[in-house]
């Protein structure tokens, strides 16, 4: 039996590095995991006034997460934090209060950047936001992927040899993390 994992690539850009990393992770996943890659596209803005009758897109997103066995966030860094669309998706999924769709779900965090710091501030932002609304966050290995600008070919395939073992080690560790918390 494979665990169903939702991978949220935190950018809306069609050719985003986060989406490419998420897709590469899905290809490297062991057979114990089935990864479904998605982006926050189509999730309307969170507004607490709508909680009594949530929009259909909120309900669909929450249901996808509730049916999953874990979540991996793959995020770029915008202005030393996560993109607003990713924060909005988290806000939508974490409500109503006390009924977060992330509750009990093992979580992984991967940040990335074409620059030298690998989006570490974005990862730290997620590490600040998620406790209290999610399940256990995998602590190690940490993944702050730098210099990803030349890591993929025109079709989005991972071509940077130095990145493959990093992603493989991460997804293998995440598989063990999920099994531990569902075992």
Summary tags:
Rossmann fold; single chain; alpha/beta; 15% strand; 5 helices; globular; 183 residues; five-stranded parallel beta sheet
Strand content: 15-25%
Principal-axes geometry comes out as globular
Rounded Rg: 16 Å
Mean pLDDT, all residues: 96
CATH fold type: Rossmann fold
Query: What structural class should be given to the helix and strand makeup?
Result: alpha/beta
Q: Roughly how much helix do the residues carry, as a percent range? A: 25-40%
Task: Give an overview in words.
- This protein is an alpha/beta fold and 183 residues long.
- It has one domain: Rossmann fold (3-Layer(aba) Sandwich).
- 34% of the residues lie in helices and 15% in strands.
- The protein has helices at 17-28, 56-66, 84-93, 120-129, 164-182; strands spanning 3-9, 33-38, 70-75, 107-112, 143-145.
- The chain has a five-stranded parallel β-sheet, with helices on both faces.
- Helix 1 (17-28) links the parallel strand 1 and strand 2.
- The longest helix is centred in the C-terminal third of the chain and has 19 residues, at 164-182.
- The protein starts with a strand and ends with a helix.
- The model has no long low-confidence stretch (mean pLDDT 96).
